[in-house]
Amino acid sequence: MTAPGWPARLVHEQVVLRPLERGDIVAWREARARNSAWLQRWEATQPPGVSVAESGSYSQVIRRLRRLAGSGRSLPFVVEVEGTFAGQVTVNNIVRGSAQFASIGYWLDRDVAGRGVMPIAVALVIDHCFETAGLHRIEISIRPENANSLRVVEKLGLHEVGYAPRFLHIDGAWRDHRIFAITAEECPEGLLARLLRSGH
Question: From CA 80, how far away is CA 104, in angstroms rounded?
Fold first, then answer.
């Protein structure tokens, strides 16, 4: 059973979000190769002793994400800018019941960084989560050293709600993360509308 509102296509001007597809393999591999040095510091890694059966090849990534999307536990979006593959925004760990919660992770091609693409993409996804998928709370966890990602949540006006020592295994070690969150009540007019009104 897929999540409500999935699959979905979200659009604002030249920024388009759509489901990750098998046909994205060439563009995904090229983008990941081109950005490997830039992304490596922020990439999830396998802790010692953990199986690498679900590591980072495209076939493994899309198989895992499609399985999670099919069970309603993930919304794996591609980010396109002017028709070109530019990154991903993934809604992870969807919890239903009394929580109606999820977390969001993202990465962007360095070639389009600094153009306001990711704040728009994340705002579109959060609005979709609240308005269509029926979620109530979204979290984003960011390493304290990741200035680019911190700028995204700053532009979106997400509140910092906690600090998690040694939270995720990133770039070969357990890393601390700052936790940001937003609930549906905090942006009744929509997060994209609030972002655009703020001038960011």
Answer: 17
Query: What confidence tens digit (pLDDT) does each residue in 136-146 have?
Result: 999 999 999 99
- How many Å apart are CA 94 and CA 105, to the nearest integer? 12
Is the bond preceding 119 in cis, omega lying within 30 degrees of 0? no
What's the Cα-to-Cα distance from 41 to each of 38, 65, 144, 175, 198, rounded to whole Å? 7, 22, 12, 11, 30
Q: What is the pLDDT of residues 163-178, one digit of tens each?
A: 999 999 999 999 999 9
Residues contacting residue 154 through CB under 8 Å, at least 6 positions apart: none
CA dist list (Å): 143 to 35, 149, 169, 175, 194: 19, 8, 11, 7, 25
Amino acid at 114: G
What is the C-alpha separation between 112 and 108, in angstroms, rounded?
7
CA angle at 133 for the pair 127 and 138, rounded to the nearest 5°: 55
pTM: predicted TM-score of the whole model, two decimal places: 0.93
Judged against a pLDDT cut of 80, whether residue 36 lies above it is answered with yes
Q: What are the tens digits of pLDDT across the range 65-99?
A: 889 988 899 999 999 999 999 999 999 999 999 99
CB distance 88 to 32 below 8 Å? no
By CB atoms closer than 10 A (0-12, 13-18, 19+), residue 120 is buried
Q: How far apart (Å, rounded) are the C-alpha atoms in residues 105 and 118?
A: 11
